[in-house]
Write a structure and sequence with these properties.
single chain, about 725 residues, two-stranded antiparallel sheet, 35 helices, 4 strands, extended
């Protein structure tokens, strides 16, 4: 077997801070710059990479030809797997004789090819068969194995393995290597845990080591769970997600190496991304109790479960009808019940999965050594010399001095280059102190707004579990964004899937401040595809009444929530928008939005009405609930006051939607709820004045409402209208 030194490292960037940040979000190796450039001192050209990959794979499969013990081990594993698969197929397909006959034939052919390959190798060693006859036999076996590989997924892995052996006998190392990699593509779980576990540990494990570290951390935490039933349930989910992620990462890197083995001249393949499963961070003693949070919640407890994945005490939900809610404890594959999970297919293993474990606020933080080890597992951190010189010797016409203090320079250097978490956390305090002591200093501002510095800060924001550090970073970034819009783009480019914000929004003490930073960053809908964004933002809307102060920046979380919710309900195609709107309904978001119609500034209340309209269009059955519970006076107020600001169209549209009720008695009841008017103004007079100034598009709607109100009044008394 080839030496481990031959392992071709994933191509990395020239050391930009951006590439480092991407690695820290996902793993040790998978987050490198997709452009896959390497530093000049360690450049490995395409031919060298291909040669190294082929050397490792062909060297491994070559042991089958040379090593009797290795050959016997592989043969026994394949036989054992085929026997179990045959037994399971027999029990599943008793009633289908024709299918059984076809499958039996495939098993017979596979057994024959395996025995044939062993015989050929023995003849090869003894020299008892002529070269021409041997080549003919090998090619005949290849033809049969190729058909098997394309016929049944559960046999494809073994067929591909023996194809690799056959081509090795033909001395075609490149094709042999491709077939060996294909084993990991067809059945990543079977290959990594059973058939080729030693090769997997050598070639693939370095790329997914971050998943193993994550699993160990979560396993240790769950080991302290008091409730046995809850512990077993969470352990089961943890193992499921871990195995799915490992299989997905194995598949992606098998395909990555196969790309390298294509004909020369092809473009360098991008490095795969295998992110960590997303989870809440609930490890700080400063964070509020989960129980107290939910006990004060006025909305459906399903919202809390969707954010934290916790089993809560039963409470009477305030929601639309008989809601069943949703559970986002995990999303992804159904566990394959078959042996070794060998039926994993490409379409399933690459599905994203999310895992949220409930964590008690009483649990203490991980010890310092563990966090240091976690941070050290990041790939080498590097900052270009030019950038460092720029930080050290920045000059500014508006600055009182021409250079930064040595302490601040050292702190910035540490943020950009150190792989020790505690050092980076300490330097965040140094940077914060310098910023607060010299507010608005152009020299400090220019130094901190360097791309490499921002990305170094973001790395700490993703890894640190200290609330104090996280809050300082959030505040610094908020200050910098308001002064320099380029910082916003650096954040979005560095974290395109907003994984940092998902983590922060799942916290119990910093989610409101994090929502403000998210709003200042102005992300687009395409960066928030996951459905977990809906419960996270509804939670901000529920608790975000108080203004948040991030140093000198002040912003309402409500503004942030409405911005993000607008992206979620209007920023995608129609199907995705409707899906998110239904999720808002299932989590009790309608109650929150109705509450906001009565409170806040006019534009915020109008925003609430526009979100309610999205929900009505997604699920018309909620009209009855709205007509019964929405504050009619507030709707009329928005029509009157909104008219002055040209923003009353949402309130008018909602009012018209609420007339599409399924019973006339409900319509009459709703109209009677409007008759009291607003602030002493008669309802019909409000619509009469509105009709005179309405746009051509609005006039028919207003006229219908006015007519319906008029007819209702006529039945009681003569109407002036």
């Amino acid at each position: 077997m080839a030496s481990k030194a031959l392992l071709p490292p994933p191509l990395s960037s020239k050391g930009s801070s951006s590439s480092r940040f991407k690695r820290i979000v996902g793993s040790v190796s998978e987050r490198s710059n997709p452009k896959s450039n390497v530093s000049e001192d360690s450049t490995m050209d395409e031919a060298s990479v291909i040669s190294a990959v082929i050397g490792i794979l062909s060297g491994y499969i070559g042991r089958y030809v040379k090593d009797d013990s290795f050959r016997r081990t592989i043969r026994d594993k394949c036989n054992s797997f085929l026997n179990r698969t045959r037994t399971k197929q027999d029990s599943d397909d008793i009633d289908n004789d024709n299918d059984n006959e076809d499958e039996d034939e495939i098993f017979v052919k596979m057994d024959f090819c395996m025995e044939k390959m062993n015989t050929l190798i023995e003849d090869h060693h003894q020299g008892t068969k002529k070269q021409v006859t041997m080549m003919k036999s090998i090619r005949s076996s290849i033809e049969v194995l190729t058909k098997i590989a394309s016929s049944k997924s559960y046999l494809s892995s073994c067929a591909e393995l023996y194809l690799a052996i056959a081509y090795k006998l033909l001395r075609n190392d490149r094709v042999s290597s491709k077939h060996l990699l294909q084993v990991f593509c067809y059945s990543p779980n079977l290959a990594r845990t059973y058939l080729l576990s030693d090769l997997w540990e050598h070639l693939f494990l370095p790329h997914v080591l971050h998943l193993k570290i994550w699993y160990t951390s979560e396993f240790e935490f769950l080991s302290n769970e008091v409730h046995v039933g809850e512990k077993e349930k969470k352990m089961k989910v943890l193992n499921k997600v871990y195995n799915e992620k490992m299989d997905s990462g194995t598949y992606l890197f098998a395909m990555y190496y196969k790309q390298w083995l294509k004909v020369s001249g092809a473009s360098v393949p991008p490095l795969p991304i295998v992110p960590l499963p997303s989870r809440p961070s609930c490890r700080s003693s400063r964070r509020m109790s989960s129980d107290s949070t939910i006990s004060n919640s006025s909305i459906n407890p399903n919202l809390y479960k969707a954010v934290f994945g916790l089993k809560e005490e039963k409470q009477k939900p305030i929601s639309l009808g008989e809601q069943t809610g949703i559970s986002t404890l995990s999303k992804g594959l159904e566990i394959d019940k078959k042996l070794y999970g060998d039926d994993y297919k490409y379409s399933s293993v690459q599905k994203e999965d999310m895992l949220s474990f409930g964590r008690s606020s009483n649990h203490s933080d991980k010890n310092q050594a563990h966090r240091l080890d976690y941070f050290k597992c990041l790939s080498c951190r590097f900052i270009p010399t030019d950038s460092m010189a720029k930080i050290s010797y920045i000059k500014s016409k508006n600055a009182s001095s021409s250079v930064l203090s040595s302490e601040l320079v050292e702190a910035i250097t540490t943020i950009c280059s150190s792989n020790i978490l505690t050092e980076c956390e300490f330097t965040i305090r140094v940077v914060t102190k310098a910023w607060l002591n010299s507010p608005g200093d152009p020299l400090i501002e220019e130094a901190l707004t360097q791309t490499s510095v921002i990305e170094g800060i973001l790395e700490v924001l993703f890894v640190s579990t200290e609330d104090e550090i996280l809050e300082l970073i959030i505040s610094i970034l908020a200050e910098l964004i308001t002064r320099n819009d380029a910082i916003r783009q650096i954040i979005l480019n560095s974290d395109p899937q907003l994984e940092i914000f998902v983590r922060l929004l799942k916290s119990t003490s910093l989610f409101l401040k994090a929502s403000v930073l998210l709003y200042l960053s102005k992300p687009m809908a395409k960066q928030m595809i996951s459905t977990e964004w809906v419960p996270l933002i509804l939670r901000v809307m529920e608790f975000g009444d108080k203004l948040q102060t991030l140093f000198t920046v002040q912003c309402s979380p409500q503004v942030a929530a409405f911005y993000i919710l607008d992206q979620l309900l209007n920023g995608f195609d129609e199907d995705k928008n409707l899906e998110n709107a239904r999720l808002v309904l299932s989590l009790g978001g309608l109650t929150l939005l109705m509450k906001r119609v009565q409170e806040g500034e006019i534009h915020e209340r109008e925003n609430s009405v526009s979100m309610i309209l999205c929900c009505v269009r997604a699920e018309g059955s909620c009209r009855s609930y709205l007509a019964e519970n929405i504050n009619k006076s507030s709707l009329l107020e928005l029509i009157v006051l909104g008219r002055k600001q040209s923003s009353s169209r949402y309130a008018l549209s909602l009012l018209f939607e609420l007339l599409y009720l399924d019973r006339r008695t409900k319509i009459t009841k709703f109209l009677r709820g409007l008759k009291d008017g607003w602030n002493g103004l008669n309802t019909m007079h409000i619509f009469f004045i509105y009709l005179q100034k309405a746009s051509p598009e609005e006039k028919p709607l207003v006229a219908v409402i006015l007519l319906m109100l008029d007819l209702m009044v006529i039945s009681l008394n003569l109407s002036d209208y």
